[in-house]
Amino acid sequence: MTFSPNAVARLRDEREEESTKPYLARGSRAPRCHTCRVIESHCLCSWRPKVSARSGVCLIMTKKEVFKPSNTGWLIADVVSDNFAFIWSRTETDDGLLALLSDPQWQPYLVFPGEYVAPERVTHTVEIASSKRPLFILLDATWTEARKIFRKSPYFDALPILSLLPEKLSRYRLRRSTRSEHLCTAEVASLCLELAGDSEASSALDAYFDVFSQHYLDAKNQLPINESSVAHQELGVFVKDLPHNRSQ
């Protein structure tokens, strides 16, 4: 099998090959595009943006999260070319993750709320002029799971904690959250990219996330795709070959 350069998609494919039975996430019975996971009639693949970024992103995921159609980690991996993804385990540590964290080209930042961390580890900024490229470590899981990963992963103990101060409440509407200030993974990554000076990638990811949300919800509610929406217009700036131009 030829795996996708999208690390989240590759991780999902690897997990599917290893599983003895399929993981049935909510809504998984509907026929979905294998690549973007959206219901086939509302496939998002032709709206994938093409941008460059100096930063890298590493997603730490749970075994179930990688299969959820509403997961936004794969959007990040579509936008940021240097993307990595690993399944978290309390008892086993992936050698590939340890190698990535020690790679001299990267300056890893573990993205986590500063209120739960010793103040001396916390930063709200990213060193853009550094000789090392920023690598944002994102815990792509529910808040309860993310706290567990943070507490039980000693290899993160030496990393600086990037604590974000978002001005906007989350726009994520695909799953319920008890706290509106909790951002989804794609929103967090967009803020990180902006701090690192990757403004184009940040804007592209924001727009891609909005279009994904629209396609996902329109498919769920059996509504047609509205490619003239504001979200599509904003994303179109970053799409090399717009879908509606291909038939002309």
Automatic annotation (TrEMBL):
Residues 10-20 have a biased composition (Basic and acidic residues). InterPro entries: DTW (IPR005636), DTWD2/TAPT (IPR039262). Pfam families: DTW. One of its GO terms (molecular function) is tRNA-uridine aminocarboxypropyltransferase activity. Coiled coil: none annotated. Keywords: S-adenosyl-L-methionine, Transferase, tRNA processing. Its EC number is 2.5.1.25. It is an enzyme of class 2 (transferase). The keyword Transferase applies. Residues 1-23 are annotated as: Disordered. Residues 29-221 form the DTW domain. One of its GO terms (biological process) is tRNA processing. This is tRNA-uridine aminocarboxypropyltransferase. It comes from Pseudomonas taetrolens.
